Amino acid sequence: MNIFVCVKQVPDTETKVTPNGDGTFIETSSIKWIMNPYDEFAVEQALLLKAANSGSTVTVLRVGSTQDTEALRTALAMGADEAILVESDDNLDSYMIAKSLKGAIEKSGKSPDILFTGKQAIDDDCLQVPQLLAQMLDLPSVSVVVGFESNDGLVTLKREVEGGALEVYELSTPVVVACNKGINTPRYASLPGIMKAKKKPLQNLSLGDVGVSADDRRVKYSNFQLPPEKPPGKKFDAMDEAKQAEVVAEVVQLLRNEAKII
Amino acid sequence: MSKILVFTETTDNNVKSVTLEILGRLAGQDIDVACIGNLPDEGAKALTEHGAANIHKVTGAGLEKYSPEGYSKALKAVIEKGGYDYVMAGSTSLGKDLFPRLAGIFDAGMATEVTNFTMDGGTFAGTRPLFAGKVLAKVEIQGPKPHFVTVRPNALGMPESTTAGAGNLQDLAAEVGEIRAAIKEIVKGASEKVDLTEANIIISGGRAMKNAENFKILEECADVIGATVGASRAAVDSGFAPHAMQVGQTGKTVAPSLYIACGISGAIQHLAGMRTSKVIVAINTDPDAPIFTKADYGIVGDLFKIVPILTEEFKKIM
After folding, report:
1. Mean pLDDT of chain A
2. Is B223 helix (H, G, I), strand (E, B) or coil?
3. Hey, what domains does chain B have and what are their CATH numbers?
4. How far does A200 lie from chain B, in Å, by closest CA?
5. What gap in Å lies between CA B152 and CA B49, rounded to an integer?
6. Which residue of B has its CA nearest to A25?
7. Which residues contact A102 (CB under 8 A, 6 or more apart)?
8. A215 FRET partner, CA 20 to 30 A, in B21, B118, B236, B285?
């Protein structure tokens, strides 16, 4: 099986994000980069599928800057076989990323049997690339997948929707599967895995190589700014048991008469 | 003035309220609405009152249940027939899955989950949170039309006044052909309540809940005020609650009218996911917990003592 995984490199979730000087993007100089957390589930699912289908290869794809290649190195150390990096700025829009991934898949010379992605990247939170890529490749896609079973080219996928309900899809591969937390427990990269990863093939492509240019930009961002700070609220001490009833009654009264919310 | 199509999802007896929020913001534009399958009478009435000129009701084989391929092909037919400049929908589970595929069919751009937008001169300009709301940015769309936009539920708010449209119901039969990814069955969720992303009130528990059993006290309070129960990442990672309940950067981003945080310290990735809530109440034993910096009303106290009293107080006024 030709298994593909698309990963993105994003700022760590504990990062304090601030706009850059001219508000065209965020300040990226002191960010710790990690693999997008949802993409870890995608890599893990690819490796599980490879383990169950001997002779399979897992190819990891990433579009982004060369400053740090943490995401690809992590995927290779976890057990992926090879990687392709499409070099670009880190602020491409979803359309450009999907088109780059499509181009990279074509350049790989392999016809994908299945593609895994995270359900969303936690930087721009657009949730577009998996579905866009599927449409561009004329493949079906299922997003927010929390359950995966595969049997002889037939996959059963559970997609999580509102209220924790699950839509169960059954279809033939190839398919694009966008993974959510809950689908599996990603492994940690072992030390031997990290050592081995250094020798695994990593191909670098340019945007030109994959047929993407500035004309492909569809979404333009500007005026990056911090959200407005709330004025300080009211704080009540209710550690003392004798005060609890009084404090709670006052807060409920404020919710009703001041905030007018209840 | 631009020609705009709004795709609406329906409920048992109406349309989803985010549709009406969008229609309210589009007052003055040339607006049509599309729905797939059954449209309840109350829904048609609400769409008309909120300015819909034409209401396209699309039916056809394969459209009985949602599928990204079936629904995108059905809407493609409506869009090509009407020649729209913009196509909008709520950023719901379905909207998030469907719209990127639909935009892809037209090689067009899409702005995901905007929390505000203007249509000055008939051109869309939106605001959307990035990095789970740690920053906001202005978003504009360029390239081939139509341009696609999804809007976060509860963000715009219901319009204060409305201008009615003609509300012409138009039936459209669509041929969607083969659907490869189709729903075989739907497994109901544990909760029959409104989803976190659409909830008007949320009461969430953190690591201080100690175990899954204790979430019962949040549920009792939630039942009184019609709230949906959420959880912090710490609570989910500790196994107290399923991931579907997680609020924050690697969970759900929410914008309810009222958010009650119980025993949640307020890690940066949690604050990012709930900071746009209109009113925030925090209950925590640690007076220096970061959650208090975002709270409108903070109660320094033990949630196991405070929450039951809160439930009783709410009972008195509800």
Report:
1. 95
2. helix
3. 3-173 (3.40.50.620), 196-317 (3.40.50.1220)
4. 30
5. 22
6. B137
7. A133, A136, A137, A210
8. B118
Report CB contact under 8 Å: B133, A227.
yes
Q: Cα dist. B309→A55, A204, B262, B314 in Å?
A: 62, 61, 13, 9
| DSSP letters spanning A4-65 | EEEE-EEE-TT----B-TTSSSB--TTPPEEE-HHHHHHHHHHHHHHHHSTT-EEEEEEEE-
Q: Could you tell me if B3 lies within 8 Å of chain A, comparing CB atoms?
A: no
Distance CA A46, CA A38 (A): 13
Distance from CA of B186 to the nearest CA of A (A): 5
- Chain length of chain A: 262
Nearest alpha carbon to residue B208 among B265, B260, B254: B265
For chain A, give every domain's residue range.
2-216, 230-262
3-state secondary structure of A186: coil
Q: Note whether B318 contacts A262, CB cutoff 8 Å.
A: yes
Beta strands in chain A (DSSP E): 2-7, 9-11, 33-35, 57-64, 82-87, 114-118, 141-151, 154-160, 166-172, 176-179, 202-206, 219-225, 234-237
CB-CB: which of A94, A122, A225 is closest to B249? Answer: A122
Question: Which CATH number does the domain A2-216 belong to among 3.40.50.620, 3.30.565.10, 3.40.50.720, 3.90.480.20?
Answer: 3.40.50.620
Q: Tell me: the pLDDT tens digits for B115-153?
A: 999 999 999 999 999 998 899 999 999 999 999 999 999
From the list A168, A241, A251, which residue is nearest B184 (CB)?
A168
- The percentage of chain B sitting over the pLDDT mark of 70, rounded to a whole number, equals 99
Token code pair at residue B222: 């939630």
Cα–Cα dist A261/B189, whole Å: 28
Which residue's entry shows tokens 């993974």? Answer: A179
Does A219 contact B137 at a Cβ distance shorter than 8 Å? Answer: no
Taking one residue from A and the other from B, the number of pairs with CB-CB distance under 8 angstroms is 278
User: What is the ipTM score, two decimals?
Assistant: 0.93
